[in-house]
Amino acid sequence: MTPPTAQQDLTSADAILDAAERLLPRFGYKKTTLDDLAQEAGIARRTIYLHFPSKEEVFLRSIDRVVERLVAELNAIASENASAEVRLWRMLVTRVMSRFDSVRKYQESLDEMLADLRSQYLERRETYFDLEADVLAKVVDEGRRKLGWHVEDPHETARHLVIATNALLPYSLSREERGSRTHVQTQITAVASLLLRGLQAPAAGVVRTRSARGQG
Amino acid sequence: MTPPTAQQDLTSADAILDAAERLLPRFGYKKTTLDDLAQEAGIARRTIYLHFPSKEEVFLRSIDRVVERLVAELNAIASENASAEVRLWRMLVTRVMSRFDSVRKYQESLDEMLADLRSQYLERRETYFDLEADVLAKVVDEGRRKLGWHVEDPHETARHLVIATNALLPYSLSREERGSRTHVQTQITAVASLLLRGLQAPAAGVVRTRSARGQG
Asked: With an 8 Å Cβ cutoff, are B118 and A125 in contact?
């Protein structure tokens, strides 16, 4: 058997992930087998094993890909021509809504997928949050330099923005809570606005972080 | 068989929940049986069924009790003699750290418990968040009336504060992330400070909610 070239590798890995995305809404997570994935992707079952050791790994990689696309989207917003606060606000809203939309077609089976993959997902999540925080930090730093935001460490602050919006990611919501796109959007919009007001505010409130107190 | 009086009812229901709290760190969630609970509580197995239809229900009620205690704690802080911002900040930190401490002894089995009870937990969670938001809303409203915070609907804002700190609740963290009390405390402290700065800030940032825009 000839080993696949790097190009073939990429193509069939992506074809398998595309198949997983199409099959989830149809069969659900539990009922989708490696055979189904191979058939849907139009490849032999053994070809899947060249790329993924298990069905679980296919779906975890599929979540990775959702995040990779999101990070590209965040980078695009970071490079736009708007003010730092507008871009940062949009990035916070996008990190929630882009994920919402990416799982929208398989709402039904998201819970069974998470029940099975929860601990592996939680491990990988740290990497996702770091990637996102890296992009947010650039804009936070810009706000600090150009707009005088009271931020000591842009990357730390970016992590806090990630934390403060994480509870609206699909993973954290019940199926019922995920039911209404408008509701999720209203919530992330309001939370992002509150956080942006916090970033723009003078660091002179009664409740201050230790660093702010030192500077004040 | 004589039915138990209301007093006996309460006493043995609490005794069963106490037993559940003691057994979790010892046996873990999966291995704890209704027989273990009865023996630990010093009651007959059939007495458990007078109070709880299943082992799952015992543990769900035990989570309810953690939240009931927390809400009492939040009410106590709300009634203290400090300024609204100091009290609100402490309430946000407390809603995270109190839960952290309540599950600290059974870190190991929290994940197996959540894997089994995830959907029931998520359903009940809405009620928990409402109870907490009710208490937070009182202090937010005080801040609006006495300190001029730009808040349109105190209960809405309280819900946003709940959302923005929810990602630090034990349920949302991986076992590794739950490992360091100091780390969680550093994060909630910083997030709560950022949110409080947002509440105290003039509603005049470039990014505003629709209502703020209407007023401006």
From this structure: no
